[in-house]
Write a structure and sequence with these properties.
244 residues; alpha/beta; Spore Coat Polysaccharide Biosynthesis Protein SpsA, Chain A; 7-stranded mixed beta sheet; two-stranded parallel sheet; 8 helices; 18% strand
């Protein structure tokens, strides 16, 4: 039977923390009335992530592991999970559980009312009530806002937090977007939202309570790369590469 919700968890070198995330996700899902599945998509991890994931999934029909040995990037990994999923709604969430799985309880009513895509935002300008457990320093907030203004001007106008790693798509929008998306690394969120607008899908936003993890894999070069990827997304939209 087709599950209502597919939860996709991309993972790279998450041996130390993915076990706790999987336990939290499974515990919450078991308390819900809808059917579900979990897909752990491993992005060429060099540590014991696959061992932890496979041990957790062992004997559980609705928990699967995609253990790709080559590192291709978070965007590629989420895309792989989305296309392997069977759910009517397909959610990706980060392996560090920075946005708790219980946030989906805020998303579901928007899907029930007809939204195609629902995202979490850590910015109050998107969703009143959004907050971070440990606020970023003023300099980081300034840099983040400047980068987001660039993203809004170039690709995704009107959304202040395009990068929160908790986004859900109905089956139709997931298939349409992730069969043509191209960005393999950190800019994939921007591409997915830009394509959602391009293809006319509706987007809902809910507030996030975000608990930052200092062991993040994102480096300064990643942030710079996102800006360059944003330019490429705009070029591909203008030249109608996504429509081919």
């Amino acid at each position: 039977m087709e599950p209502y919700l597919s939860v996709i968890i991309p993972a790279y070198n998450e041996e130390k923390r993915i076990g706790m995330t999987l336990s939290a996700v499974e515990k919450w899902l078991k308390g819900q009335a809808f059917s579900w599945e979990v897909i752990i998509a491993i992005d060429g991890a060099k540590d014991g992530t696959a061992n932890v994931a496979n041990a957790f999934a062992s004997g559980k029909e609705n928990i699967r592991v995609i253990d790709r040995k080559e590192n291709r990037g978070k965007g590629y990994t989420v895309r792989e999970g989305m296309m392997a999923a069977n759910g009517k709604v397909r959610l990706f969430t980060d392996a560090d559980n920075s946005t708790d799985i219980s946030h989906f309880s805020k998303m579901k009513p928007l899907f029930d009312s007809g939204k195609d895509i629902v995202i979490c935002s850590r910015d109050e300008k998107d969703a009143p009530g959004a907050r971070q457990a440990i606020p970023q320093s003023p300099i980081k907030r300034l840099m983040g806002n400047m980068g987001n203004l660039f993203i809004q001007i170039v690709a995704v106008y009107g959304i202040w937090d395009t990068q929160c790693g908790f986004k859900a798509f109905n089956e139709k929008s997931a298939k349409r977007i992730f069969t043509v998306s191209r960005i393999d690394r950190w800019g994939f969120d921007i591409e997915a939202l830009a394509l959602a607008r391009h293809f006319g899908f509706s987007i809902g936003i809910v507030d996030a309570y975000w608990v930052n993890d200092t062991a993040s894999h994102v480096k300064l070069s990643g942030y710079i790369g996102v800006l360059w990827e944003t330019v490429k997304i705009r070029f591909w939209l203008i030249t109608r590469q996504y429509d081919k």
